[in-house]
């Protein structure tokens, strides 16, 4: 058991230290004034171009199976990266205000941007709705997923597998179960207040949303303003995570029944979050700032769970540790991508 705890602690230290190194990346931000960039999009909640996708295939984030553990700052069930893909509002759960959440509409093959008529969602216009493409394993953003010259919709209509070039019938593909008719009656968003989870409930496995009204948002999107923002972010340092040694010691102590050292780390982390939240943020950097603060807060929540359950519940501690390893790791690439986009502005 002791060996297992050391392995778990080491894994947590690795992923947490990597996270805090993400916004320390580029510590030597140039202080000279770079050439101003052209004025970006006026809406900070929508991606100005599809370069935010950290993959060569946008369709990788269209299906519900890929949504687990990704950031969802408005808690509507549709990850931020998927909202950017479909151009829905990342700060509102129902973009077209038709009474159905963006998640329900995308998941069930309805367009989340058009209220009147409740049209189907077929991004590549191949005759298969996006949710049907997810069921068959084809690409919602590619008319011909297997590149055999026949559109996915025609292949499915005629009983062929749209993911395998050649004359492969759907019946020979165990993973693809044809569903000729997709019936969906969306349920309006509930306005009732959910019942709070009991204190002993397993730690939440999603990062907390950030109230943008409490952030200092600047309309200055110049290259100079962006460089200044990144410099200030980099200057907010955490000695607890400088090498990982102090953090590792505190974490192992908590797993051994003493959460006092880890609570000291948590207190410093809260101060760090406060320092981040008062940094003036250009609109174009808002997604980066929200993600940065939200992940910092998430780390704090899970570490608090580990510290509070020291000597009480090993199961709760391990659950929080698992959350840190999976959820945080999955969002590091998104944070890095946003950072690189800002650094590229010259």
Q: What's the structural blueprint in terms of helices and strands?
A:
Elements: H1 2-22, H2 80-86, H3 102-107, H4 130-136, H5 152-157, E1 217-218, H6 223-235, H7 245-255, H8 260-277, E2 281-282, H9 286-308, H10 314-343
Parallel strand pairs: 1-2
Helix pairs in contact: 1-7, 1-10, 7-8, 8-9, 9-10
Structure explained in plain terms:
There is one protein chain. The protein is an all-alpha fold and 346 residues long. It has 10 helices and 2 strands, in the order αααααβαααβαα. A two-stranded parallel sheet has the order 1-2. Helix 1 runs antiparallel to helix 7, helix 1 runs parallel beside helix 10 and helix 7 packs across helix 8. The radius of gyration is 23 Å and the shape is globular. The N and C termini lie far apart (52 Å). About 18% of the residues have low confidence.
Features:
10 helices; 2 domains; 346 residues; mainly alpha; 2 strands; 1% strand
Broad structural category: mainly alpha
What is the chain-wise order of helices and strands? HHHHHEHHHEHH
The strand count comes to 2
Q: On the 0-100 scale, what is the average pLDDT? A: 75
Strand content: under 5%
The span between the termini is 52 Å
Rg, alpha carbons: 23 Å
How would you summarize what this structure contains?
The protein is mostly helical. 41% of the residues lie in helices and 1% in strands.
């Amino acid at each position: 058991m002791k060996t297992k705890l050391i392995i778990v602690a080491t894994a947590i230290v690795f992923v947490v230290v990597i996270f805090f190194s993400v916004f320390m990346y580029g510590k030597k931000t140039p202080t000279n004034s770079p050439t101003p960039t052209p004025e970006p999009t006026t809406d900070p909640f929508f991606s100005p171009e599809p370069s935010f996708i950290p993959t060569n295939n946008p369709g990788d984030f269209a299906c519900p199976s890929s949504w687990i553990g990704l950031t969802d700052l408005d808690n509507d069930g549709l990850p931020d990266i998927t909202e950017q893909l479909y151009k829905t509002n990342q700060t509102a759960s129902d973009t077209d205000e038709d009474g159905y959440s963006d998640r329900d509409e995308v998941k069930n093959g309805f367009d989340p941007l058009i209220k009147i008529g409740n049209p189907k969602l077929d991004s590549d216009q191949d005759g298969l709705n996006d949710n049907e493409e997810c069921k068959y394993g084809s690409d919602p953003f590619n008319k011909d997923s297997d590149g055999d010259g026949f559109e996915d919709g025609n292949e499915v209509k005629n009983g062929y597998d749209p993911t395998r070039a050649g004359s492969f019938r759907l019946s020979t593909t165990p993973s693809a179960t044809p569903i000729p008719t997709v019936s969906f009656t969306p349920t309006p968003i509930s306005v009732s207040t959910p019942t709070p989870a009991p204190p002993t409930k397993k730690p939440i496995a999603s990062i907390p949303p950030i109230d943008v009204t409490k952030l200092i948002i600047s309309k200055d999107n110049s290259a100079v303003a962006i460089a200044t923002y990144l410099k200030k972010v980099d200057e907010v340092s955490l000695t607890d995570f400088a090498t990982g040694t102090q953090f590792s010691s505190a974490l192992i102590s908590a797993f051994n029944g003493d959460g006092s050292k880890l609570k000291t780390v948590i207190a410093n982390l809260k101060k760090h979050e406060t320092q981040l939240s008062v940094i003036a943020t250009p609109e174009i950097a808002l997604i980066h700032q929200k993600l940065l603060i939200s992940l910092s807060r998430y780390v704090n929540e899970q570490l608090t769970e580990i510290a509070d359950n020291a000597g009480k519940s090993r199961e709760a501690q391990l659950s929080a540790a698992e959350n840190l390893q999976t959820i945080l790791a999955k969002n590091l690439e998104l944070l890095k991508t946003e950072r690189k986009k800002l650094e590229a502005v010259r």
